[in-house]
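Feature request, filed as a ticket because there's no other form

It would be nice if the structure record came with a short human-readable summary line next to the C-alpha cells. Right now we just get the raw output. Example of a typical job, pasted below so the devs can see what we mean:
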Amino acid sequence: MKATLLFIAISVLFVNSTLAEVQGKSCLVLFSNNKILDADTIYNNFGIRTEYPKEVLQEAEQHARRGIRSEDLKDRIDLRKAKFVTIDGKETIDRDDAISVTYSRGIYTLKVAVPDMAHWVHPSSHIAKWVFEQATSHYLREKVFHMLPRRMVSDVLSIDPQKERLAFVYETKFDPNTQKFFDFNVSRAILKSRRAYTYKEFQEIIDVPEIREKHENHIVNLYHHLKKTEQTIRFPFETEFKPVFDAKGEVTKFERPVNLTSNHLIEVFMVAINSQGANFMAKNQIPGIFRGQDEVSEKRVLKLFELAQRLGIKKASIDPSLDVSANLQKLLIAFKDYKYPEVIVHALFYVTPNAQNSHFPSLHYFLGKDPYAFLTSPIRRVSDYWNQFMIGQFLAKKLHTNETLELLSQQERIIENDNEIMSLAKLAETQWQTLKRIKNSNIETGLVYNGILAREFAEFDLVYLHEKEIYVKVEKGMAEIPRNPIAETGKHVQVQILDINLEQGEVYSSYLKKRKKRRK
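Raw output as currently delivered:
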C-alpha cells in the first residue's frame, strides 16, 4: 500500500470578486465511507493493529517476572550513583531517555541513557517480529497504543525514578570554545534515575537559577551553548494541535500546545546524540537505519515567498546574499503572525521534502545534520531498537557473525514497512482530528465558509475551513459536471454547506464561484 502524507500545498491565490452562481452540487466526504469512528476502528482502517498477539503478551510477562539478575550485570558499568534525570510531559508513562551532564576543565560531558531493549528482545523473538510490523507507538490522544506491552515497559524498561534499569548509555563531550562535540562512546550500564521532572517543573529550574542544584546548572548551561550552535530550521509556531478533553473523556476542542524551553532542551540533546550516534555508526561501518531528508530547492522557497506576498505578509523578503536555508528561515519567521497559521502549515509541508528511513547515512536537511539516525527511543520506534541491537553486536564483536548477517537480510523490509506505517499513522491521526472537529463544530446547514484548497487528490480536494478550524475533502462530483475553475489546488474559495450527517461523517456542499463584478 502506497501511503502519501497529507498537507501539501502550493500557493494560495486570492481573487477580488463577488459571490456568483453555484456550480452544481458536490459532496464533501470526510475520508470516504467512514463514520465518526473510535480510535480502534480508525487504526484498523489503516492496517494498524491494536491488540497484541498472545505470544507477545506471554513473552512480555516472562520478562517482567524475571526482572534484573546478577548475570545481566556482566560487562556493564555501574552508573547507579550518577545523577541521571528524566524530563517529560505530565502525562508520560513510558520514560525512554534520561540525561546527565557534568562539567570539568572547560568541557561538558553529556550522557543520554535509554532502555536496553536489545538485552530483553532478540530479533528472532515474538516481540521483535511484532515490533517489525508495528513499527512505532501510535498516538490518537483519545487512545495511545504503545509498541510494547505496558507490563514489560513499566517493570523492566521505563527509566522511572529510583528504579534500577539496564541501559544503553550514549556519551559525548562538548567544547564551548570550538563549539563542537567529540569523543562519542557507547556503553551498557545499570543505572538509577534520580528524579522525573515534568516539562513545567524543569522550566522553573531554567527560569530561576537560584534554585538549581549543581548538576541541573550544568544541564541548563550546556543547553544554552548548544542553542547558539543549532542549525535546525524551525517552524515559528506549533504545527500540531492538542485535544482538550472534558470530564467524560470526550474531546471538546483542539488547541496549540504550550511550547516551553524545557521541551526544546530535550529536543536539542536528543538531536545531538542521534547525530553523533549516526556518525559513530557510519565511521565503524555498523549497519542500521538512517534518517534522511533532501534539501529544499530554491524554486520551492520562491514559491513560498510568492505565497507570502499574496497573503499580504509585508515582512516576507528574499535576500540574494543569503543561501536557500537562511532565506527559508527568514520566510518562516515572517509567517509567524499570519492570522491563519493552519493554512501556512500546508505550504510548509509543500516546501519540505519528506524525511525517510534508509540503509545509507545521508543529510537530514531540516535538522542540519549529516548523517542522522534515531537512537534515543527504542521502546517506541523500531528504527531505534534495530540500531541499538546492531550497535550492541558491534560492542560484543559479533557484527560479522553468520547470525548478524542473516538478521540483516530483514533490514530492507523493516525500513520499507517503517516508512509506510509512519505515513499511515499520520493519516490516521489526521482523520481522527478531522472527524472530531466536524462533530464538535456544529456546522449549520446552508452556511457559507471561506476555504483554501490545500491539495488536489485523484478523487478529492482537501479544503481547510479556517472559520471552523477543520479540514474536509471535496468530492469532485460526476464527470459531466464541469470543475469550478477557481476551485483548483491552492486557490481561495468559498464553500456552501448544504447538509451534514454527523453519524456518517459526511458534509454535503457546493463550491461557490467567485468572480469580479462587471463594471456598468
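Something like this underneath would help us a lot:
The chain has three domains: 1-32+420-520, 72-294+353-409, 297-347.
The chain has 14 helices and 20 strands.
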